[in-house]
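job 3f2a | input accepted
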Amino acid sequence: MTVNKELALQDWAKENPFLTGRLLFDFLGGENGECSISPVISDKAVKTYIDGTAIKEYTFAFQALLAVSDAPDAINTDNMFMLRKWQDWLTEQERARNYPDFGEKCKFVKLENLSDMPSLAMRYENGVAKYQFYAKFTYIEEV
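job 3f2a | predicted structure (143 res):
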């Protein structure tokens, strides 16, 4: 039976206690606090064995829309601090070996943050900005 890996990823990511709002899959509407988890490259086989077993990577982005400020206040630095908490949460999940349920044929090898800090991806006219960072699962999928 095929597993809906995207649903498993979204359900797993909803465990993050630092989310600033509801978490959607591959969608940000435009309002302050919205969160998304979006695949960048999913199920990329980096090595395939003769029996069909493959080492795969699933790269994704955590994204959030947060209010930004052009004043000398703490709003922008608080945004970065919050997203660093998200990255810390990912590190904790790796240490605890807490991964999404990709089915019994998938064995996770590791979860990696792909950057040392979140980045400001876009600023919108309504006073919010999209912040994001990337992460990657490496796993073995048997046939």
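job 3f2a | The helical segments are 5-13, 75-96.
job 3f2a | closed
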